[in-house]
Amino acid sequence: MLNIPALEKLVHELSRLPGIGPKTAQRLAYFILKSGNDYSDRLGLALTQVQSEVHDCPRCFNYTDSDFCRYCMDPNRSDDSLCIVEEPSDIMRIESSGAFRGRYHVLHGVISPLEGIGPKNLKIRELLDRVDAGLEGTEPEIKEIILALDADLEGDTTILYLAKQLQGKRLKLSRIAHGVPIGSDIDFIDDRTMNRAMQNRVEL
Ligand SMILES: [Zn+2]
Asked: What percent of the chain has a predicted confidence (pLDDT) above 90?
């Protein structure tokens, strides 16, 4: 205990950030305090600004400060394929690979019964509406959906749920492959990854 309520409050708020433990939170709080008013004002302004200016894109639920996000607005991207991701940060990862030139849809989480997160807490209804609008002709038709979710229990649960919901919707549905990372030695691959890599083998 620091016995200084204002400092304790800052440490408490910082320790709620992902990946920040109590020790790191304390170090950051001391750094902020030592940096003086100027830095605190700028940090405070940045926090207020990000909340007031950034919002969900109404079509794909990526973050944007405009009416629609850059990926929805880009006329050079294909409307035919839609990539489903868990969080907006996943889009950056896929974009930097340069492997996808379609549109996105952000779920803002995955189904996790343990954490009380069900389909209604995610942007799944909005995804199905998008697909239906394409089939009805009020929006561009989606011909392919690629599920780029994590290869864990929650990711698998979400993929199974979506596959069921999208059944019979006249589109190609796939999930990204999981397997042996490029440049790695197969001696060091764990059993589950090896199992998935065998299942996802490609014909030569
Ligand atoms: Zn968008």
From this structure: 83
